[in-house]
Amino acid sequence: MEIRVRLYGTLGAGLAAHDPIKGLRLHLPEGSDVGDVIERLEIPRKKVGIISVDGSLAKDDSPLQNGNFVRLYRPIFGG
Amino acid sequence: MKFLKIDMATQTITTEDVPAEYAGLGGRGLTSIMINKEVPATCNPLGPENKLIIAPGYLSGTILVNSCRLSIGAKSPLTGGIKESNVGGTVAADIAHLGITAIIVEGKPSNSEAAYLLKIDADGNAALLDGSAYKGLRTYELVRQLKEAYGEKNSITCIGPAGEFLLTGASIQTTDADGRPCRAAGRGGLGAVMGSKGLKAVIVDRGGKATDALADADVFKASAKLYAKAVRDDDFTPALAELGSAVLVAPINAVGAFPTRNAREGQFEGVEKITGETMAEVIKKRGGKNAHMGCAQCIIRCSNEYVDEKGDYVTSSLEYETIWSMGGMLGNDDLDSIAKLDFLCDDIGLDTMGTGVAVAVAMDAGYKSFGDAQAAIDMVEEVAAGTEMGKLIGNGPGAVGKHFKHDRVPVMKNQSMAAYDPRAIQGMAVTYATTPMGGDHTAGWVVADNLEDFGGTLDRFSAEGQVENSRKSQLHMAAVDTVGICDFAQSGFGAGLDNVCKMVAAKLGKAFSEDDWAALGVRILKAEREFNRNAGFTNKDDRLPKMFYEEPLPPHNKVVVISDEEMDKTFDF
Hints:
The complex is a heterodimer.
Chain A: E1 2-7, E2 24-27, H1 34-40, E3 51-53, E4 56-58, E5 69-72
Parallel strand pairs in A: 1-5
Antiparallel strand pairs in A: 1-2, 3-4, 3-5
Chain B: E1 2-7, E2 12-17, H1 27-38, E3 52-56, E4 70-75, E5 82-87, H2 91-97, E6 100-106, E7 116-120, E8 126-130, H3 139-150, E9 154-158, H4 161-164, E10 172-174, E11 183-185, H5 190-196, E12 199-205, H6 217-233, H7 236-243, H8 249-254, H9 276-286, E13 289-292, E14 303-307, E15 313-315, H10 320-325, H11 335-348, H12 352-364, H13 373-385, H14 388-394, H15 397-404, E16 411-412, E17 415-416, H16 426-434, H17 466-483, H18 497-508, H19 514-534, H20 546-550, H21 564-567
Parallel strand pairs in B: 1-6, 7-12
Antiparallel strand pairs in B: 1-2, 3-4, 3-6, 4-5, 7-8, 9-10, 9-12, 10-11, 13-14, 14-15, 16-17
Helix pairs in contact in B: 1-17, 1-19, 6-18, 11-13, 12-15, 13-14, 16-17, 17-19
C-alpha cells in the first residue's frame, strides 16, 4: 500500500525525501501500522508526540490502509 | 538598586533606594506586591491614583541567557483587577544596566492634552521632555522620529494611538534587537494607563554600566553556564528557531483545541495554510528571516521577520497566538493578511490577541463574515481612525459583545482567552478562570501536561488533577515572571530549580532555596488575589463564560467539566 506522511516541527529535518509542505509518500506492506512508519523513517520514538491518521488522533498500533495520510507532530513546550 | 519615581502631576522625578520590603524582587513579584500595597484597589485605572510600574526581572541585566523580560504592572482598565504584562526586546537589560530596579509612574498631568517623553541617559539621569510633537503617531513612525532625535542607541517603550485614546485593548510596545517597536506588553490595556498619564514614550540609553553588583559572581557564572547549556541541549530549542512559537499551530489543531470562528470549532480546515511549517517556508522563499534574534541575550531565536512577495518587511515576529487570533479565530487562512494585522496592531498599539477576538465576536454577531480578512483589516484601521466601531474593537471583545448584544464572548475577567480551547484541554479552563490576570495562557500553561502524547499524565477531558496541576503551574510561573526568564527558555530549568535558586542567592547575597522559590509564588498570588478581592472580585469571577460549559466543541464535542467548587479550591491558601 501507499500512504502519505507529513512530519511537523523538526521531525523532517535531515530527511531529504521529505518536502516540508507536501511531506513524502511511503510504500508499506499490507497490515502495517503507524509504528512501522516511525520505524521506517528512523525517527527516534521519543521525538514523536501526537500522531494523526486522516485527521483523527492515532497511536503506534493504529492499523493503516492504502491512501492514508499520516501526520507526526513533535512534542511541544511553551506558551 | 534604586527606584525612579516619576510624578506626572508635577513632572518631577525622584530617585530612592529600594526599600527593604521589596528586596530580592523584580518583574511581576515587584509590580504586583507594590500595586497591592500602594494602589487603592477601587481606584479609577485611568485616574491619578493608579501607578504604572515598569520593572525588569530580578535576573535581567546579568549574564544569564534569555533573562530579558520586562514586567509592566498597574490596575488594569480592561479587567478592573491587578495586571502584569511582560515583554521581551532589549529594554529590561538596558534598565537593569542603569542599576534601576523599577520605574514608577504616578499621578496624572492636569492638562489631559499633555504628552511627555521620559528620557534616561547612560548615567541613569532621567528627564521628562515635551512630547507634544509626537502625539498621535503610530509606533513605527514614532520610533523612527525618536531615533532621529535622540540616537539609534536607545530602547524605546511607547504607546500608539490606541493608548492615547485610552482604549482598554491598548498595548505598550517596545523595541526589539533591531530597534523596531514590535514587542508588546499586550495584555490588560496597560497602553491606556500609560496614555492616561500623558506618557508617550520611555527612551532608555543602551549603554548603562551600573548593573547591580552580584554578591557572588563566580557562583552566578557557573550556574548561568549550566542554565544556558540546558537551553541549548533541549530538543525543543531548534524547533523554536526553525518555526517560532508557530510550531504549535499544527499540533494544537490536530488535538482539536485550536479555537476556530470565535471558538465554535476546535479545528480549522484551512490550518495547513497558516501552520508554522508553512510560515517558515514562505519566509524562506521570500528572503525573510527565520531564527531571528528579537530579544537581548537570546540563544533560542524564536523570532522571525515576515516579508511580502517582494521581500519587503511586513512584521516581526509572527507568533502562534496572533496566527490564531487573526487566523483560525476569524476563519482566515490567508497568512499575508494575518501578518499585516499583526503589524497594524503593533503600529497602532493594540493587543493582537484581544483585538483578534474582538473582531471574531463582531463577525460571530453577524457584523461581517468569517474569513473576510479585508473586513478585519478595516476594523483594526478604524481603531486608529477613532470611529465608533474602532472604539469598540479597541476596547476588546467584551465591548463588542455588549454593543451587539451577543453573548458568545470568550473572555475571563473581560480579557480574551488564548489559543487553547478549555473544552479540549480542561487544565486551561482552570488557568483561564482562576488566574488573577484574566484569560491568560502564560499564567499557567498546562497544555503538555494534559496531552499524553506530549508526555502529559492528565486526561484532558477530565477534571481529575486539573486544579492541583494548574495551581502548581501558576505558582511557578509567578516566580519565573519575577526573575525575568523567558517562557520559552524554561528548558533551562532542566539544569535544576536549585540551579536557578543559586543565581537568585548569588545576586541577593543570602540563601535562597527551592522552598523560598515556592514561597515567592504564594506571596505573589496572595497579593494579586487580595488586590482583586479589594477591587470587588469574588469567586463568581473565577468562572468561564457559559458557552464553554454549554456548547460542545467539535470534533470531540466536550464541554468544560471543572465544577465551581473545584475552581474555588485552586487557591485554597
